[in-house]
Amino acid sequence: MATQKRAARSIGSAATAGLGLMRALFARGPRRRRQEEILAELLQQLTLMTDEIHRANVIQQYRLTVDQMDRMVDDPSLADTASTLPGLSKGRRRQMIFANRQYGNLLLAHRVGVCDWDELLGHLRVLCRNEIFAEYWDRTVEHRRSLPADSMEARVGAAVDVMLEELADDPDEWWIVGPAPAAGLRPDEPSAGPVA
């Protein structure tokens, strides 16, 4: 995965250098504008390919994480090696792992463009109604404190915090809890992956 990222960066750097060379070679003449248009289109396509490689890497990394989570759910001794949540029974630990998996799946769906910010909030509102997810969220608060404040995952975490607070205050109006999209919480960049 790191090799693919380096290759994508190298391709971008090479393309940029190529653009400079092409401009120097064709600085004069009637074909210059058309050649620059073609080169600009190629650079745009290369950028799209680089973005697609990045999304594929994110999905692959999530698959590896889910595979490990599946193993932890199947084998409690493996869950013990990865868990940072003390005082859980084996069954409750499995539930926490699965709650993390559900949350991570929603983040992945947003990161790769399957759902937009408003859809993500809608799915999270429903997930916040689940008592096990609420316990998972409460138990992993320390995990989220290390996230950069401007990261997508920190912004999603802040939105979930508000949802859970408002849900606790008025559980009958669960469908309207949470920050409005205009509240400045719309994420702009990807995060490192699921929390916990």
Automatic annotation (TrEMBL):
Protein name per its UniProtKB record: DUF6082 family protein
Organism field: Streptomyces plumbiresistens
